[in-house]
Write a structure and sequence with these properties.
globular; three-stranded mixed β-sheet; 2 helices; mainly beta; Hypothetical Protein Aq_1857, Chain: A; about 40% strand; 9 strands; four-stranded mixed β-sheet
């Protein structure tokens, strides 16, 4: 829907690709579906679900190593240009979104606010 021909809407680091592929195999999933929804103290939250198949209007991003990221239609304009990484530290591990469209985040890091030009109130 919001794709630029020849350009992936998101990039996935090798660490994230390996973790996505590992979890896809464990869950027998067709891919990791990423979306956004209203919620949290900053206004919006990312959603992530392993799914059995892509939905009709999902943007499908194939990644080396067998990982597949599916972007929900409503999320495509919010995620364009995002880098998805997987980080492990002494106390926690998880996916990290480096999203140029985010203008603010809550203190706990669970919710975000997008540039209002993207239709944040949609």
């Amino acid at each position: 829907m919001f794709a630029i021909p020849g350009q992936s809407p998101v990039t996935v680091t090798p660490a994230a690709a390996a973790q996505i592929a590992r979890l896809m195999a464990k869950r027998d999933a067709a891919g990791l579906r990423i979306g956004v929804k209203k919620g949290g103290c900053a206004g919006m939250e990312y959603t992530m679900d392993y799914v059995a198949e892509a939905e009709v209007h999902d943007e499908v991003v194939e990644v080396d190593g067998g990982a597949r990221v599916l972007i929900a239609p409503m999320a495509q304009m919010f995620l364009f240009g995002t880098e998805i990484d997987y980080e492990t530290s002494l106390l926690e591990s998880g996916f990290r979104f480096r999203n140029p469209n985010v203008v603010d985040a809550c203190g706990c890091g669970e919710s975000i606010k997008f540039d209002e030009k993207l239709g944040n109130d949609a």
